Amino acid sequence: MSGSALFETFTRAPLAFDHGEGTWLVTDKGERYLDFGGGVAVNSLGHSHPHLVSALTEQAAKLWHVSNLYEIPGQSRLGERLADATFADKVFFTNSGAEALECAIKTARRYHFVKGHPERFRIITFEGAFHGRTLATIAAGGQYKYLEGFGPKVEGFDQVGFDDIDAAEKAITSETAAILIEPVQGEGGIRPVPTQSLKRLRQLCEQHDLLLVFDEVQCGIGRTGKLFAHEWAGVTPDIMAVAKGIGGGFPVGACLATDEAAVGMTAGVHGTTFGGNPLAMAVGNAVLDVVLEDGFLEDVQRKALLLKQGLAGVADEFPDVIEDIRGTGLMLGLKCAAPNTKVNMALRDQHLLAVPAGDNVLRLLPPLTVTDAEIHEALDRIRAGARGLSDAIAAAAAK
Ligand SMILES: Cc1ncc(COP(=O)(O)O)c(C=O)c1O
């Protein structure tokens, strides 16, 4: 056996964390890191949130799994709460974002199938998108680096340029079923889609009887300061994929849809063994308890402004390291002037965790529970990291 027993699919940082406390992660050596990566937008309420810990442990002492052959009260409750809080009428629970997207894609295709149009199965997607790593979702994402070597690309995805709504309109044919888009691209480099563009997509869907599908796996559950990012635009989808933050670290995903859009998802056409199990639902309900508390999202918006303003100051100070600040809420990106991997390392040297993304961006996705003091601490560390890198760049140029 060469090296570790694990598939070599991840390039891991040489850090092993032993436990977490709120926004902090503590290594097996006792070193503390400020976690502004949030497990890639998963740890919505930080680490070891007492309400989540008690929800999970109480459920663990009662019942873990029964399968979807039986009623799961926590699942019905979380489904109703998500429906009450959104455009949706119906919810299907999964274990991951990619599975939520698979369900969304299948729901869109079945809609046209039951309406007598099985030929309408194609979905328009956008450059820079990321929808997961299953065969269908790598086809939807359309990125060659994820498709290469995995055989023929799953048929039925037509990609146009990022925010190119004219091209999306031109790509509509008699076989088109839906338009799939992240309201804020995450992996693509924290790229929010302008409100006007989302509105135009909604209109195109109305005109051509297409389903509008939002992927809010990364930008949903309070990340942008609203429960879902599309609320900022006042545009609602027909179908939406959710995951990451809804489980706060426990694997949970969900596909939400209107009654109309879900018309084809009848008994037996789709299923899952683990999706919506009692443990996952206990945690999902506990996350909503906190995120839907009065004032919680307003506080996320306030803290986000504090962070963004502070970051803009750092970018002004070190333009050779950070070019610009992107994003909304606590989904912010440093558009780097230096390579984002180097900026990431410089911040990690300051014990501040962030996550690289496409377009030479470094993502900051702290828990929504981050405190003002932690934001100031993070800004100090980011400034120190940027200063170190800026000095190194200047020294290299002087040689
Ligand atoms: C927008 C978006 N969609 C889908 C996915 C896939 O989610 P998962 O990795 O849970 O399958 C991700 C993961 O990063 C994502 O950011």
Helical proportion, percent range: 25-40%
Globally, the shape reads globular
> Unreliable segments (pLDDT under 50, ≥5 consecutive)?
none
The total of helices stands at 12
Can you identify the CATH class of the largest domain?
A: Alpha Beta
- Could you say which structural class the secondary elements and strand pairing correspond to? alpha/beta
CATH topology-level name of the largest domain: Aspartate Aminotransferase, domain 2
The tally of strands reads: 17
Ligands bound to this protein structure: pyridoxal-5'-phosphate
Q: Major sheet: order of its strands?
A: 4-12-11-10-7-5-6
Q: How much strand content do the residues show? A: 15-25%
**How would you name the CATH homologous superfamily of the largest domain?**
Type I PLP-dependent aspartate aminotransferase-like (Major domain)
How does the major sheet shape up?
Answer: 7 strands, mixed
What's the order of the H and E elements? EEEHHHEHEHHEHEEEHEEEHHEEHEEEH
End-to-end separation in angstroms reads: 44 Å
CATH architecture verdict of the largest domain:
3-Layer(aba) Sandwich
What is the domain tally?
Answer: 2
